[in-house]
């Protein structure tokens, strides 16, 4: 058993460093950017100016449809459509790029609702106080609302990232040689499915445990100056 573990670990760690971690980081980064834009589009009220109002309403409709679509369909199906389906429309994507797009779009849809909820949780009197100081809407968002919303959204966003790390195992379904795919190939050679899959599970558990500790550290840092927060 130990010999199998020792000989398998280098390949699994290589797959983790080469595919699993970069895929999770890139997907979460792009997904977070998309989530912030989507949340702001859905959160900010349309201008009374008709020249701006109707284009903004169209953007809100697009953002709402995007969130509905990716929250209403399975992630695995989304990956299959992007990688196996788009070639029928003449769009051929590298497996890693296809996975990054799929995970980013899925993460963005879920995270946008987290960020929108965090924005809505900031009391209205924060806006009113800013306007009395002659802050514009943009200044109010950047200097007052967003910093508070980020602190509120941090725990659920951290959970989303941890979930994304585990979801990268689905990338094996579109031929990416991440950890789970490598473990499947090794199982076909050594006929040790329980050992190999347990080893992969342990590696995922280690990554997620490190991220959980980082989450707790960030929460303490962001809550440091909040009245009544735990030390």
TrEMBL record:
Domain ABC transmembrane type-1: 17-212
UniProt keyword annotations, A-Z: Amino-acid transport, Cell membrane, Membrane, Transmembrane, Transmembrane helix, Transport
Main localization, broad class: membrane
Matching CDD domains: TM_PBP2 (cd06261)
Domain of life: Bacteria
Subcellular localization, as worded in the UniProt entry: Cell membrane
Transmembrane segments: 20-44, 65-86, 194-214
UniProt topology in membrane: Multi-pass membrane protein
Family: Belongs to the binding-protein-dependent transport system permease family.
Name of the protein this chain belongs to: Amino acid ABC transporter permease
């Amino acid at each position: 058993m130990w010999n199998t573990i020792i000989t398998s670990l280098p390949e699994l760690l290589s797959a983790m460093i080469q595919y699993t971690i970069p895929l999770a980081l890139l997907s979460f980064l792009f997904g977070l950017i998309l989530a912030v834009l989507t949340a702001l589009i859905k959160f900010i009220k349309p201008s009374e100016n008709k020249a701006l109002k109707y284009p903004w309403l169209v953007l809100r409709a697009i953002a709402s449809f995007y969130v509905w679509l990716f929250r209403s369909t399975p992630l695995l199906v989304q990956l299959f459509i992007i990688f196996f389906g788009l070639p029928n429309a003449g769009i051929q994507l590298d497996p890693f790029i296809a996975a990054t797009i799929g995970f980013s779009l899925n993460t963005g849809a879920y995270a946008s609702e987290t960020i929108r909820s965090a924005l809505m949780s900031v009391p209205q009197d924060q806006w009113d106080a800013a306007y009395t100081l002659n802050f514009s809407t943009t200044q109010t968002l950047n200097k007052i609302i967003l910093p508070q919303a980020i602190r509120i959204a941090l725990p659920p966003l951290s959970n989303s990232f941890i979930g994304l790390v585990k979801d990268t195992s689905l990338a094996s379904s579109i031929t990416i040689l991440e950890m789970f795919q490598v473990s499947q190939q090794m199982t076909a050679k050594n006929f040790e499915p329980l050992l190999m899959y347990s080893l992969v599970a342990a590696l995922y558990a280690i990554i997620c445990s490190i991220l959980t500790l980082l989450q707790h550290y960030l929460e303490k840092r962001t809550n440091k100056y909040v009245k009544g927060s735990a030390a």
